[in-house]
Amino acid sequence: MVLLMVTTVVYVPLVLPLVLPGVAVDPLAIARSLVVTMLIPLTIGLLVSIRYSAVSNALRLTLNQASNTGLILLLVLVVVLNLENIVGVIGTGAILALVSFVILVAGFGYVLGGPKRETRVVSALGAGQRNVAAALVVAAQNFADPDVLVMLVVGAVVMLGLLMPLAGEIGRRDVKDEHAMSTSLRATSKSSTRRTKMDDE
Description:
Layout: H1 2-19, H2 27-51, H3 53-81, H4 83-89, H5 94-111, H6 117-128, H7 132-142, H8 146-200
Helix pairs in contact: 1-2, 2-3, 2-7, 5-6, 5-8, 7-8
């Protein structure tokens, strides 16, 4: 998490002006917004966690819930305020592009995730789920065009709509596999016990 955040703070201000050559973007303003709103709070949280671990453990669940709730409320608010623009995205090809992008990066994450299936699954889901919070910070503080926020919200909805069912299906299959393996091991153990008893007799 810390490595990803530091990479985001360094990477986004450098790359964003290159991929948006026709848009006036201030790299320093982008870096400042990410540092102030994300990197500094993260650093403070890590220091508190190291120095006051008991307090950190007690507050972690509450703060996680507050953070997730705040992000959800922000997304809902942006959807409500820009509902007409969001509906206007339908049929433009933007949703298809987002779906293709999520599938593509998730696929790359799975392929490059290493030899273990568990690692590949985590890598795929992590690659497919972009950092919406950081993107919203950059968009809100550096772009006046409301369509930028609209596309970010649409992208967040598309990502959740694709990755959450996928994660749920993977979880269900893993549970079934573990249950089948456990049943097989119990059956093998019982069979071995019976053979041992017969040999003893």
